[in-house]
Amino acid sequence: MSVSTLISPQSMMDTLSIHTEMAKGAIKITPNPKDHGVQATSFTELMESKVTAVNSDQNVSSAKMRAVDSGASDDLVGAMVASQQASLSFSAMIQIRNRLVQAFDEVMKMPL
């Protein structure tokens, strides 16, 4: 697993707060003339990639735990670290989901 595939819960929360501010209109996005042909990542694509990364963490953790359980590997520490990483990334994803639901509820309560 490379370092670029690791997702920290803090980076997910930072990304969520930036998108929240953009949705509120507090942050204005102006196109950069230097970015010709560069497509900005949409919120949907960002969330899909994060969910895929969390799923990958879960799969790696399961594979390591299965290898330790079957005796194919003696890396118990690596399996436990992978398990904790998968647990933390899943918890962060659940917190982000809860904040999105809360933000949606606030938007739905706004008077027209």
Structure description:
This protein is mainly alpha-helical. The chain is 70% helix and 0% strand. It is built from three helices and no strands. The protein has helices at residues 9-24, 43-70, 76-109. It starts with 8 loop residues before the first helix and ends with a helix. The relative contact order is 0.13. The model has no long low-confidence stretch (mean pLDDT 82).
Strand content: under 5%
**N- to C-terminal separation?**
49 Å
- Tally of alpha and pi helices: 3
- The helicity comes to 55-70%
Q: Specify the structural class.
A: mainly alpha
| Main beta sheet | none
Task: State Rg.
Answer: 18 Å
Q: N-to-C SSE series?
A: HHH
Shape call: elongated
Average of pLDDT? 82
Stretches where pLDDT falls below 50 for ≥5 residues? none
Number of distinct beta strands: 0
Features:
112 residues; mainly alpha; 70% helix; elongated
Brief account:
By secondary structure, this protein is an all-alpha fold. It has 3 helices and no strands.
Spell out the blueprint of helices and strands:
Blueprint: H1 9-24, H2 43-70, H3 76-109
Helix pairs in contact: 1-3, 2-3
